[in-house]
């Protein structure tokens, strides 16, 4: 896989992490604690993963952290991830992994650029974090005004008639949040049942108008703004039109499992990666963490992604060096943080003096 690149020009990393969400970001930090030369590769132009789609939502269930917005959590995770100066690559879509004769890996992106690594961690979540768009001719022209695929600012929907298309957790959560500030919230879903948490779905049913099983058939607008939407019954084809000021579409994210299959990785029936107790996949040297995995005792929390990330990094360390300690020395007694701790103390003293 040299492709004209000489050995001298190659930069080999101990670990390359694919995915810059919570699992990937925390793993990047922890890899630094384990003295690994680490690179993080993210598909989007910004780190944060799925949290980018709910930056204003309040997150309560990260241990030891007061309730905080998704945006603030991302900022804190990125700051932590960069503690040991990792290499970070944005806007790169890895499409192929090749295991070389020397058991290292070559990762190839969509543009044909390559990354060289001794081990890989997959932290790509449910897939490429890009929302599935409406497959309706001309829909893209409304994206500049009132067709949305995520909610970054709740207040822009204040006192408006909002249609939400989708039935997962995000769609249900947005419906409940917007019901507090919008003039009217209408939800359409192509199935009769919603995939959100039961209590949230129950709340949504009490505060919104629901059309099931219906899907968006046509958008009606003047210029770049949608003024009405035609919904079609998924079984009978019966149509109804509703007037709107804004449309939010949440039809899930693109899944990107092709290169996982090509790499020979074993998947569960639902398409997620099968991993061992140390988060190693079916291929030696390829580990995984976060939403991309399924295993007994799986915890679907951000905190769970942190644990899996640290476990995977420890697995990588021992894969590369079987004599290495099973885990990093805790940060409170770790010499790696001695200078950083002194710096923090000095900054705190300076603040007190001011």
Automatic annotation (TrEMBL):
Cofactor(s) named in the record: FAD
InterPro entries: FAD/NAD-bd_sf (IPR036188), FAD/NAD-binding_dom (IPR023753), Fd--NADP_Rdtase_type_2 (IPR022890), Ferredoxin-NADP_redctase_2 (IPR050097)
Example GO molecular function: NADP binding
Highest taxon listed in the record's lineage: Bacteria
Annotated FAD/NAD(P)-binding domain residues: 13-308
Alphabetical keyword list: FAD, Flavoprotein, NADP, Oxidoreductase
Record note on cofactor: Binds 1 FAD per subunit.
EC numbers for this chain: 1.18.1.2
Keyword Glycoprotein: no
Catalytic activity: 2 reduced [2Fe-2S]-[ferredoxin] + NADP(+) + H(+) = 2 oxidized [2Fe-2S]-[ferredoxin] + NADPH
Presence of keyword Zinc: no
Annotated binding of FAD, by residue: 42, 50, 54, 94, 291, 332
Ranges annotated as spanning the membrane: none
SUPFAM superfamilies, per the entry: FAD/NAD(P)-binding domain
Classification via HAMAP family: FENR2
Family: Belongs to the ferredoxin--NADP reductase type 2 family.
Record text on subunit structure and interactions: Homodimer.
Listed name of the protein: Ferredoxin--NADP reductase
Origin species: Shouchella clausii (Alkalihalobacillus clausii)
């Amino acid at each position: 896989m040299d492709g004209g690149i000489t050995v001298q020009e190659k930069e080999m990393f101990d670990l390359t992490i694919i995915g810059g969400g919570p699992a990937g970001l925390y793993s990047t930090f922890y890899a630094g604690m384990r003295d690994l030369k680490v690179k993080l590769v993210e598909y989007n132009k910004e780190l944060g993963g799925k949290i980018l789609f709910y930056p204003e939502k309040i997150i309560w269930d990260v241990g030891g952290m007061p309730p905080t917005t998704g945006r603030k959590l991302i900022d804190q995770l990125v700051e932590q991830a960069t503690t040991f100066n990792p290499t970070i690559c944005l806007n790169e879509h890895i499409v192929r992994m090749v295991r070389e004769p020397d058991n290292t890996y070559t990762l190839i992106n969509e543009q044909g650029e390559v990354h060289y690594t001794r081990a890989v961690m997959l932290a790509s979540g449910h897939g490429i974090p890009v929302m599935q768009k409406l497959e309706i001719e001309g829909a893209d022209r409304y994206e500049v005004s009132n067709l949305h695929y995520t909610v970054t600012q709740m207040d822009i929907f204040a006192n408006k008639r909002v249609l939400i298309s989708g039935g997962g957790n995000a769609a249900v959560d947005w419906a409940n949040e917007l019901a507090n500030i919008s003039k009217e919230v209408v939800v359409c879903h192509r199935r009769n049942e919603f995939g959100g948490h039961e209590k949230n779905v129950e709340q949504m049913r009490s505060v919104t108008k629901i059309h099931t099983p219906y899907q968006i058939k046509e958008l009606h607008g003047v210029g770049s703004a949608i003024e009405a939407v035609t919904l079609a019954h998924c079984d009978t084809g019966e149509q109804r039109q509703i007037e709107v000021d804004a449309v939010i579409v949440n039809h899930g994210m693109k899944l990107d499992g092709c290169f996982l299959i090509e790499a020979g990785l074993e998947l569960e029936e639902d398409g997620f990666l099968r991993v061992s107790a140390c988060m190693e996949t079916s291929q030696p040297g390829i580990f995984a963490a976060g939403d991309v995995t399924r295993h007994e005792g799986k915890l679907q929390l951000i905190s769970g992604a942190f644990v899996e990330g640290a476990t995977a990094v420890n697995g990588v360390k021992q894969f590369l060096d079987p004599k290495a300690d099973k885990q990093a020395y805790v940060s409170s007694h770790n010499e790696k943080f001695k200078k950083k701790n002194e710096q923090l103390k000095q900054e705190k003293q300076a603040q007190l003096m001011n």
